[in-house]
């Protein structure tokens, strides 16, 4: 940058970044988890808006060693506030705890990212840019995807869809907790709520609550981060099963938000409502292929992606069916604490 101040440097100087390490718990020893964390911290330190430009950096953890903490600070080129949490603390609770550790006097904005995601070099700059305006939005949601492979494109249509918001142009109805920045008072008022027996649907529920409250989420497609795929096919299958089971807990919120009074019975219909939700999602996923800012798939690759969308959705539906019938599996009530494995350096390399 040759010493030139970026237009939104003043925003960065009033922003805290919260990273959680929950997604590094699975499938590895402490050494592998530390290496994964340091890899991501190194990527963040080389952003066009570097970590040194931020007001504060917070990392939540359940037992990082002193050597790893010191190495992270060397890579970041700054002090980091490490927040110790209980080993059983869930993913979204860790984000709430990280937010609570930010300094209200210095941080007008709080950005959330994950240690199992690979940010584009200008990710943070693009995420903060909309805040540098006369009327800054209450929150900015960036774009998350999996790797630009056939499997990655197929899974992106399922797990990382964005829908236009009725609140204003350029806004999205939904966001993902690994790629978002909130005005401090907005997150303090809403935050993530406890959802019994739900794995990773809390950010979707918060998106619905924000829409109901009239809080628009500005969508910054250029603020891109790439979510790693699970390390193994077995972990990928477990992820799909858990996502399917999540639909049971998410369905009442979707029904209440989008369906008329005469169809509210679907909120408590056993597996019927969740399967209807997943059938609708399958249709949207098929339609959204090649419309996600990933390199387009053509010919046989496109057909393969469509087949994978159907196959992955079928596993989700089985998970929803079992949960709807009261046959909860794959983690029980501690599913959130029993993290999957996300330590690959090249996302999707084994899939």
Automatic annotation (TrEMBL):
Keywords: Transferase
Protein name stated in the entry: Glycosyltransferase
Record flagged with keyword Transcription: no
Residue ranges constituting the Glycosyltransferase 2-like domain according to the UniProt record: 56-187
One GO MF term: transferase activity
SUPFAM superfamilies with a match to the protein in the record: Nucleotide-diphospho-sugar transferases
Key word Transferase present: yes
InterPro entries: Glyco_trans_2-like, Glycosyltransferase_2, Nucleotide-diphossugar_trans
CDD domains: Glyco_tranf_GTA_type
